[in-house]
Structure formats: structure tokens, C-alpha cells
Amino acid sequence: MRAAYFSVAVFFVTFIGAKESTSYTGKDYSCDPSVCDDVPDLDCMCARLNPPGGLSPDDVPQFVILTADDDVTSVTHPPMVAITKGHTNPDGCPIPTVYYVSIRYTEMDLVNQLYKDGNEIADHTVGHKGFPSEEQINLARKDIAEYTDIPQESIVGFRAPFLKSKPATRRHLYENGFTYDSSITEQAGDGILTEASMRQKLWPYTMDFGIAQNCQTAGDTKCNELERYPGLWEIPMLDLQNEYGASIASMDPVNGNAFDLYMRDFQRSYTGDKAPFGMYIHPSWLLAEKSRIEGVNRFFSNITALDDVWVVTNQEIIEYMRKPMKKEEYRAMRESRACGRSSFVSKAVPHKLKLTAF
Ligand SMILES: [Zn+2]
Predict the structure, then answer these.
(1) Which carries the bigger pLDDT value, residue 190 or residue 302?
(2) Cα of 217 from ligand 1 centre, angstroms
(3) How far, in Å, is the centroid of ligand 1 from the Cα of 94?
(4) Which CATH homologous superfamily contains domain 44-351?
(5) 335-349 pLDDT, tens per residue?
(6) How many whole angstroms from 161 Cα to the centroid of ligand 1?
(7) Mean of pLDDT values over 279-285
């Protein structure tokens, strides 16, 4: 199978790769925008170290994604309110959070309220075990829909507990109509794809041409360009870097104070390729050290003062990737609509990419 792929790839590069390509090409991953990004109505996006739609980094908005994992309870809720309340996007609307909800101790009335307030609710399984079964993934989505007013088709994203995923996990998502996964970390430094300076970071992409990452922290290294899920998005979890440039885990970062950690890496994105900047936390991280709440608040106060920075949900990121636009257009679009959730279109039936056409 590998030999067959390479013969296709060689042919592909020879006849199509001659034209200018804006997508990332590294290791054995290869994706040409002319058969992916540029095809109308095809939910396909090459992995890339630059903005979509041929736009320059100077012209596009900087997106920030705040995510909170695990059970939603009356203990975990207050610290999340403490870091988001009072901060608004350039259109004056509240900043949202993406909640990856596991079911065990979750209070569904809180989940319902979070959704109504414009936050995104995503799947983090029922029992919170790594390498979850298909049943664990599907049942969580079903339970949330059943015990809240949230339509099942609004729950389109997934994160693996402990970030432990493998090919079967992603296949479950693909076969069950999920729109995206956000479990694969992306490091800076040797042996990984994003540039060591972290000024050129990996943007979200669909897995039509496989996975453009090495999955080294996923607990299963079987992850490469041959693992293909047409139309299923990967929203990479970008690592942070410390002051010496070493890659550090971005989930619940502990290496330094929260403001410095986030601001340093935010600046790298903002002055780099503008890849969406991620803040991945558990509410318990905030509870463990109160200075983190102050640090994150200070960070949000600083970045929300910029008129081209938007804290968004993953669904909003994918909407943007599907229809890229300049930051002025984006702001006009946002200001023309009411606060709250946009009507995200879940493409529950994945498309089939015909590689044999080459
Ligand atoms: Zn978790």
C-alpha cells in the first residue's frame, strides 16, 4: 500500500506540484490546494503554515481559542466565569469557551446554560478513559443532547481524554459524522512540523491527505499521511515555548506565570503566520493557583484591546477556514449579526476524495 501511495505521490508532484503551492509540505505529507482548498463546496483544507485563501498574515484576523476540559460542575464553573466575564470581542460580544464535556459528574443544567450563552459544547466521552471506544464517544454526544436543549448536530467536536487517541479513535469520529478532532499536539523544535521559532505555526486542516503531524504525545505513534479522513478537521493543539525556545506543554502550562506564558506565544502568532492561538486548560488548573486567574484576566484584557483579535469557538474557526476573508470583512460580518452562536453547518456526510483521478 505504501509503494502504491508513493507512485501516486511522485506522479502528483511531477504534474501538479510544478505550480506554486501555498500549503505545507513536509515529511511524506503532501497536499495540493488546487485539488483541495480551491474546489468549491469541498470541505477540504491542506495543512499549512500560512492563512487560507491566499491571504497574507497582515490581512487576516488573529483568532484565539480557549478550551476547558472534563466535567462541568458547580465547582468547575466559577473559575471559568472568573476568567471570561467582562471581556468582549471587537463587536462587543462576550468571549466564548469551547467545553469538552465528559459526562460522569457533569451537571447538565450548567451545560445547557453555557450553550445558551454562546459557548461551544464538544464531546470528551462518558467515562473519561484514554483511547475511548466508539460507544464512549457516541454515548456522550447522545447524553448531552438528551439531557439538555442542545441539538445533537451542534455537538461536532471531540477531544480524547488525556489526549490519548489512535487511528481507531479518529475513524470513529469520521464514521459517526463528527466535524473535527482537537487532540493532537504540535511541538516546536526538532522532528516536528511547526517551525522552531513558533512564528510559523500549523493552521487547522482536514485529513483528506492524511495527518501532517507526528502524534508523538498521543500515546500511539501510528499517525501519518496514509491515515486519511476526507472532510474531518484536525485543530492542532499548539505547544507553547518557554523563554529559551524549548517546547512546553500547552495544556495547563506550569512553566512560568500565566500572563508571560500566554503573551509570549500569542505575540509569536500575532507577528507570525496568525495561526489560531490556543489556550487549553482544566478549570482545576485555575483553582490550584489563584494567580493564574489574575494572569489569564490580564492576558485577555491586553489582547481584547486589539481590534483584529477575536476569541472564538472551534466551529467559528472552521467557518472561517471554509470562507476566508480579510480582517476588515470579518469584523463587518461579525458586527452585522447578533451576539451568540452562528448557525454552524455540520457536514455530517464526509466527502470522498478521488485520488485515483491523478
Ligand atoms: Zn479530560
Answers:
(1) 302
(2) 15
(3) 25
(4) Glycoside hydrolase/deacetylase (3.20.20.370)
(5) 999 898 777 776 644
(6) 4
(7) 97
